[in-house]
UniProtKB/TrEMBL annotation:
GO annotation terms (biological process): lactate catabolic process
Matches recorded under Gene3D superfamilies: 3.30.465.10, 3.30.70.2740, Alpha-helical ferredoxin (1.10.1060.10)
Molecular function as annotated in GO: (R)-2-hydroxyglutarate dehydrogenase activity; 4 iron, 4 sulfur cluster binding; D-lactate dehydrogenase (cytochrome) activity; D-lactate dehydrogenase (NAD+) activity; FAD binding; metal ion binding
The protein's name: D-2-hydroxyglutarate dehydrogenase
InterPro entries given in the database record: 4Fe4S_Fe-S-bd, 4Fe4S_Fe_S_CS, FAD-bd_oxidored_4_C, FAD-bd_PCMH, FAD-bd_PCMH-like_sf, FAD-bd_PCMH_sub2, FAD-linked_Oxase-like_C, Helical_ferredxn
Keyword vocabulary terms for this entry: 4Fe-4S, FAD, Flavoprotein, Iron, Iron-sulfur, Metal-binding, Oxidoreductase
C-alpha cells in the first residue's frame, strides 16, 4: 500500500507538534501497519499514530491543525480499535487515546455519576463501580476492551438496550476538543435560557450553539419525518433529540458522530444500581425463524433483554474454551441436538422472592403460548452463572470467525435494525437474499430491539469479493429501507457512510451544515457520516474505493497462508486487548499498552511481512520491527486458547524466527537456551560444581555480558536422587516388561500402573515435585514407571530451531507411541511441557493422528479417584489457593476443576485464583532485555496475591514457582505436595 500523497505535509505537522508535545508520536512502518486495520474488512494505512498524554496535548494537535498550511492534514480519533466498519481507519493521522488517557477521575456514589477520560475501558469502569453497587449500563460484547470514548463516538449499545437505552442516554457532560483547539464543554441546557448559560463561552462556541438551535428549531417537521422511530435509530447528529420542549443538548450531536465533530476527551456519566437479583431463561428452538417469531411472546412480560443466537454459533461454542462453563445449560439430550436457535431471556427483580414469582409468571405465560415449538428450557441463576452464559454470547463474533476454510464471516451488513414486530419477516427476506447469492452465514443479536447481526461467509481474497460485497450491501440497503429500518443499528457508519443520504433523507443537508460548523475544512475523520456544507466538492467515501484487507491477503503465497495457520484469519475482533490484569490474555500487551505487542498487532505484522516476502518488497527496517514485536512475545500461548479465532502467535513466532535466522546471525544465547534440556542430564553429575559457579560474581557478570542472561536455573540438591528408592520403576529402551501385561482397550483406568514422562524442570530443578508425585501415586495404590528422560524440544520450538525440533519430535513420537502401545496411561507433571505433546507435536495432517496421549497429572488422577475414592478424608485444615499455569488455564480450562475435585476427595478446599501471567514463561524471564517487563508483569497480578495468601498459594507451573522464588523469595508448592501431606 502506497503512502498518502500528503505525507510531506504530515511530517512537517508532526515535527512542529513534537516540539511542545507530552505524549508519544510514532510514524514507524510497523505501527502504521498495525493501525491500518480494525475489526472490519477494510485496510487503510495511516501516516502516523499519536498517543496524547492529556487534554492539553489534544488541544495542541487541533489548534495546529486549523492553521492554513495544514488544512490538508486530517486526523481520526481511535479508542479500542474494534470497530466493524472502519470508523477509526484513515490515511491521515490516528490519535489513540487508550494508551495514556485511561483514568477514572471521580466516582460519586451518592449522585451516581462517574467522570472518566475517554480511554477508560467499560469493564474497567464497572469493576471500579462494583463496590458501590453501581454500573455503567450500555452492554457490549466487546466490553473488556471497548473504551468509553469509542462508545460515545459510536453511541454504542447492545444487550438490554430496551431497558437501558444507548450510550447517549447515560452521558451527562462531555468535554470535546474542537478544531480551533478549544475545549467545548456540553451538557443539557434549559431551552428557555440556553443563551444566558452560554454567554461565558467563546465566540466560536456561541456561534455553534446559535446555529444548531436555529437549524433544529426551524426544521422540526423535516427532522421528525426523516429520522425513523427505532430503539436503535440513526446514531450521530441526532437532531430529533438535540432540541425538545424542555432541553437543548449538544451531546446528542456528538454521541455517535465518530470523531467527525471533535475529539471527546472526558465524560461525566450517569450510573445505575446493579440489579439485585437476575436470572437467565435459556430457550431452545427447532428453527432460528421460530426463535425470532417468539420474541413477541417473550417481550410481553418486559424482560430485561432477549438475546438470540443461531445453531452455527452454538456449535462453534462447543469447541471453544467457553463451553466448559455453559454446557450444563444447553444439555446433551436428544432434544438439545435438534436446537437450531436459542433465546437468552434475562429477568431481574429487587428481591429473590419477586424473582421467583416473575419466573413463575414468565414460564406460565410462554407455556400457554403455542405459537412456536420450544424444545428445551433451562435457567442460569446468580451473577457467575449468568456471566458464563453471556460470555458465550459475547464471543459470537469471534466464534463465527473460527469456522474452517477460507470463507469467513465478514462484517459489512451485520447490524441492521428494523421495528421488532417486523424482524422475523425481515430476516426471512434477508436470508432469501443471501441464499440467492449462494452465501452461508451466521446470525445472533438482540431480538428485543430488532437488531440482528448477520455475517455472510466470504473469502475476501477472491478478486470477485468486492463486487459481491457491494451487490449484497445495495440489496440489504433497499430491503432495510423498505422495512423502515436503518443499516447501522449498533456498530456505527464508518466506511459505509455513502448510504447516509438514503437514510437521513431530507435531513442530510442539515447534517452537512452541522458538520461545517465544527469542521469547515473536512479534517476530522473525513468521508464518514457527512461532508461539510462549506466544501461542496467533498465526497463521502464509497465502499468500493477503500482498500480491502483481502487485497493484501491474496498477495501472500498460498503455501505461506496455509503454513501460518489460523493467525492468517485474525479478524481484528480485539479479544487480545482485554484490559483485565487478572486475565492471562497477552501479558506483553497489558504491560506495554502497545498494540504492536498484542496478538492482533503481531498477526497483522506477520501477514504484511509474508506479503512483502512474496512481492519482493521486503526491507530490513520493517523486518527488524516484526522481529522486535515477536521477540516481545512470552510464548505463553494464552492467545491460542482465548482468541475466538485461535490465533497462535507463539507458533507463528517460531516459524518467523526459523526463516529470519536463515538470513541473520543468531545470538549465542539462543543456541544455549534452546538446548538447555539436552545439556541438563550431562551436567547433572557435576551439579554441585555448576551451582557453585553460578553464585560467583565473575560468572554472573560473564553470563550477563556474553549471554544476556540475568540468571540460570540451579540444580535441586535432590536432582541426582535415585527414583527407584521412592518406589518408581525405571524403564529402559525396552518396554517389554509392560507389554507382557497389556490390558484390553477400555480397561486402562482400572490398571494400577502409570508411565511418567519426565520434564527437565521437575526432574532436575524442582525435583521434590517429581519425588512427591511418585509417593502420592504409591499411596493410592499405583505403580509408577519412569520413561527414560527425553528432551521434548519446547525451547527449540520457542526459539525457532524448527529443523532440530522436528527431528527431536519424530524420535520422541516413536518412543511415546511405543509406550502408548502398552495400554498404560502416560502422565506429565509440568503443564506447559506436557501440553507440547498435544500442540506442537500435533501433525500437520490431522488424518495422521498420533497414537499416544500424554495426560496432565490432574486429568488422570481426577478420573482415577472417581472410580477409586480415597478411604479416609482429612479434616479441613485451611483453604488453599490454586495459581494455575496460564498455558494450562487457557488451553485446558477444565484443569482447575479437576484439581478442585481431587482436593475435595481429600476433604480439602481449593479455590482458583484469578491471575494474569507470572512474567517468567520459560526462558523469557531469564533474558536480560526482558527482565524489567517480566517483573512488571509479575507485579500486575501475581505479587499482591502471593503476598497476601502465601504459603497457601499453590502453583502448577515450574516457571511460576521460579518467578515467585526469585522476586519474592518465597517457595510455592505444587498441589501434589499438599496432597502428599494429607493422603496416608
Amino acid at each position: 500500500m502506497n503512502d498518502h500523497p500528503q505525507q510531506s505535509i504530515t511530517k512537517q505537522f508532526l515535527k512542529q507538534l513534537d516540539a511542545d508535545f507530552m505524549g508519544d508520536i510514532d510514524s514507524s512502518d510497523a505501527v502504521r501497519q498495525v493501525y491500518s486495520t480494525d475489526n472490519s474488512i477494510y485496510q487503510l494505512k495511516p501516516q502516523a499514530v499519536i498517543y496524547p498524554k492529556n487534554t492539553n496535548d489534544i488541544q495542541k494537535i487541533l489548534s495546529l491543525l486549523v492553521l492554513e498550511q495544514y488544512r490538508e492534514v486530517v486526523i481520526t480519533a481511535r479508542g479500542g480499535g474494534t470497530g466493524t466498519n472502519g470508523q477509526s481507519l484513515t490515511q491521515g493521522i490516528v490519535i489513540d487515546l487508550s494508551r495514556h488517557m485511561n483514568q477514572i477521575l471521580q466516582i460519586d456514589p451518592v449522585a451516581r455519576t462517574a467522570t472518566v477520560q475517554a480511554g477508560v475501558v467499560k469493564d474497567q469502569l464497572n469493576a471500579a463501580l462494583k463496590p458501590y453497587g453501581l454500573f455503567f449500563a450500555p452492554e457490549l460484547s466487546t466490553s473488556n476492551r471497548a473504551t468509553i470514548g469509542g462508545m460515545i463516538n459510536t453511541d454504542a449499545s447492545g444487550q438490554g438496550s430496551c431497558r437501558y437505552g444507548k450510550t447517549h442516554h447515560h452521558v451527562l457532560d462531555l468535554k470535546t476538543v474542537i478544531l480551533s483547539g478549544e475545549l467545548l464543554e456540553t451538557s443539557a441546557l434549559k431551552r428557555t435560557n440556553w443563551q444566558t448559560e452560554t454567554e461565558v463561552k467563546t465566540v466560536l462556541q456561541r456561534n455553534i450553539y446559535k446555529s444548531v438551535f436555529e437549524i433544529t428549531a426551524e426544521n422540526k417537521t423535516v427532522i421528525d419525518k426523516s429520522f425513523p422511530k427505532l430503539n436503535r435509530s440513526l446514531t450521530g447528529y441526532d437532531l430529533p433529540h438535540v432540541l425538545n420542549e424542555e432541553e437543548f443538548n449538544l451531546n446528542h450531536l456528538i454521541c455517535g458522530s465518530e470523531g467527525t465533530l471533535g475529539v471527546v476527551v472526558e465524560a461525566k456519566l450517569n450510573l445505575l444500581p446493579i440489579p439485585a437479583h437476575r436470572m437467565l431463561i435459556n430457550i431452545g428452538y427447532a428453527s432460528f425463524h421460530e426463535a425470532l417469531l417468539d420474541a413477541k411472546a417473550l417481550m410481553k412480560l418486559q424482560p430485561l433483554s432477549v438475546e438470540t443466537i443461531d445453531s452455527k454459533v452454538l456449535h462453534l461454542a462447543k469447541n471453544d474454551i467457553v463451553w466448559n462453563n455453559v454446557a450444563a445449560y444447553f444439555g446433551e439430550s436428544e432434544q438439545a441436538e435438534l436446537i437450531q436457535g436459542i433465546n437468552l431471556v434475562e429477568i431481574d427483580a429487587s428481591s429473590e422472592q419477586q424473582l421467583m414469582q416473575l419466573q413463575h409468571e414468565f414460564l406460565q405465560h410462554i407455556q400457554s403460548d403455542q405459537t412456536v415449538q420450544r424444545l428445551t428450557m433451562s435457567t442460569a441463576v446468580g451473577e457467575l452463572a449468568i456471566h458464563h452464559v453471556y460470555a458465550m454470547r459475547k464471543r459470537a463474533v469471534g466464534l463465527l470467525g473460527n469456522v474452517q476454510g477460507e470463507k469467513r464471516p465478514q462484517p459489512f451488513v451485520e447490524d441492521t435494525a428494523v421495528p421488532p414486530e417486523h424482524l422475523a419477516d425481515y430476516i426471512a427476506e434477508f436470508r432469501a437474499l443471501l441464499d440467492r447469492e449462494h452465501l452461508d452465514y451466521g446470525m445472533f443479536g438482540h431480538v428485543d430491539a430488532g437488531v440482528l447481526h448477520v455475517r455472510p461467509l466470504m473469502d475476501m481474497k477472491d478478486p470477485n469479493a468486492l463486487a459481491l460485497m457491494k451487490r449484497v450491501t445495495d440489496q440489504v440497503v433497499e430491503l432495510t429501507h423498505r422495512y423502515h429500518g436503518v443499516l447501522w443499528g449498533e456498530h456505527g457508519k464508518g466506511l459505509r457512510s455513502e448510504y447516509a443520504p438514503i437514510f437521513f433523507g431530507e435531513s442530510y443537508p442539515l447534517i452537512q451544515k452541522i458538520k461545517a460548523l465544527f469542521d469547515p475544512y473536512n479534517q476530522l475523520n473525513p468521508g464518514k457520516i457527512a461532508t461539510p456544507a462549506s466544501k461542496p466538492h467533498a465526497q463521502l467515501i464509497s465502499i468500493t474505493e477503500v482498500p480491502l484487507r483481502g487485497e493484501a491477503d491474496r498477495q501472500i503465497a498460498p503455501q505461506d497462508w496455509s503454513e501460518f495457520g489460523s493467525t492468517m484469519h485474525c479478524n481484528g475482533n480485539g479479544a487480545c486487548f482485554n484490559y483485565d490484569l487478572d486475565d492471562p490474555m497477552c501479558p506483553s500487551y497489558k504491560v506495554t499498552r502497545d498494540r504492536i505487542h498484542s496478538p492482533k498487532g503481531r498477526a497483522t505484522l506477520v501477514k504484511e511481512w509474508l506479503r512483502r516476502e512474496q512481492t519482493q518488497q521486503q526491507d530490513q527496517i520493517f523486518e527488524q520491527q516484526v522481529y522486535d514485536a515477536l521477540h516481545g512475545c512470552l510464548s505463553c500461548k494464552s492467545c491460542s486458547g482465548q482468541c475466538p479465532v485461535k490465533v497462535d502467535i507463539p507458533d507463528v513466532k517460531a516459524k518467523f524466527l526459523h526463516r529470519y535466522f536463515q538470513k541473520n546471525k543468531r545470538h549465542i544465547r539462543d543456541h544455549l537456551m534452546s538446548r538447555l534440556e539436552i545439556f541438563i542430564p550431562k551436567l547433572s553429575p557435576v551439579s554441585a560444581i555448576y551451582n557453585l559457579l553460578q553464585k560467583f560474581s565473575p560468572m554472573i557478570y560473564l553470563q550477563r555480558k556474553l549471554f544476556k542472561l540475568v540468571d540460570i536455573p540451579l540444580f535441586h540438591p535432590q536432582a541426582k536422587a535415585d527414583l527407584a528408592r521412592y518406589g518408581a520403576i525405571l524403564l529402559g529402551s525396552d518396554l517389554s516388561q509392560l507389554t507382557s501385561h497389556r490390558l484390553d482397550q477400555g480397561d486402562c483406568i482400572t490398571d494400577k500402573r502409570v508411565i511418567i514422562v519426565q520434564d527437565a524442570f521437575t526432574r532436575y530443578f524442582d525435583t521434590p515435585v517429581l519425588l512427591e508425585t511418585i509417593t502420592v501415586l504409591k499411596k493410592i495404590g499405583i505403580t509408577p514407571y519412569i520413561l527414560p528422560f527425553m528432551p521434548n524440544g519446547k525451547p527449540l520450538h520457542v526459539h525457532g530451531f524448527l529443523n532440530q525440533f522436528e527431528q527431536l519430535k519424530q524420535r520422541n513420537i516413536e518412543i511415546l507411541n511405543q509406550a502408548a502401545a502398552t495400554g498404560v496411561p502416560l502422565l506429565g507433571i509440568d503443564p506447559a511441557m506436557t501440553l507440547v505433546f498435544r500442540q506442537e507435536y500435533l501433525p500437520a495432517d490431522m488424518a495422521n493422528k498420533a497414537q499416544y496421549q500424554v495426560q496432565m497429572l490432574q486429568e488422570w488422577m481426577s478420573q482415577y479417584l472417581q472410580q477409586h475414592p480415597l478411604n479416609s478424608k482429612c479434616k479441613q485444615q485451611e483453604k488453599y489457593f490454586l495459581a494455575a499455569h496460564c498455558t494450562e488455564r487457557t488451553q485446558c480450562p477444565h484443569s482447575v476443576h479437576q484439581w478442585k475435585s481431587i482436593f475435595a476427595q481429600c476433604g480439602l478446599e481449593l479455590e482458583e485464583l484469578a491471575l494474569g501471567c507470572c512474567g517468567m514463561a520459560g526462558t523469557y524471564g531469564h533474558e536480560a532485555e526482558h527482565r524489567e517487563l517480566s517483573l512488571k508483569i509479575y507485579a500486575q497480578s501475581w505479587q499482591s496475591k502471593v503476598s497476601q495468601l502465601s504459603p497457601r498459594v499453590l502453583a502448577t507451573g515450574y516457571s511460576c514457582r521460579t518467578q515467585v522464588k526469585r522476586v519474592d523469595e518465597k517457595q510455592l508448592l505444587h498441589p501434589i505436595q499438599i496432597l502428599n501431606q494429607f493422603i496416608t
